[in-house]
C-alpha cells in the first residue's frame, strides 16, 4: 500500500487511502484498511496451508 502512495496511482488500495485522506472520506479509508487486513489474513492462511503441504511431502511433522 505504501508503495502506491508516491507513484500517483489512480487504482488500488493505496490510491483509495490517499484519495480518502485528501477528501476527508473516513468510510473510504476504513473500508480500504479493512480490505487490506482481510487480504493479508487470506495470504497468511494460504502460505500456512502451502507450508503444511510441503512439510508433509518432505516427511516432517507439521
What does this structure look like?
The protein has 62 residues and is mostly helical. The protein has one domain. It contains 2 helices and no strands. The protein has helices spanning 13-23, 26-57. Helix 1 packs antiparallel against helix 2. The radius of gyration is 17 Å and the shape is elongated.
Write the layout of secondary structure elements.
Blueprint: H1 13-23, H2 26-57
Helix pairs in contact: 1-2
Rg result: 17 Å
H/E series:
HH
Q: How many separate helices?
A: 2
Profile the largest sheet: none
How would you briefly describe this protein structure?
69% of the residues lie in helices and 0% in strands.
Tag the structure with descriptive keywords.
mainly alpha, 2 helices, single chain, 62 residues
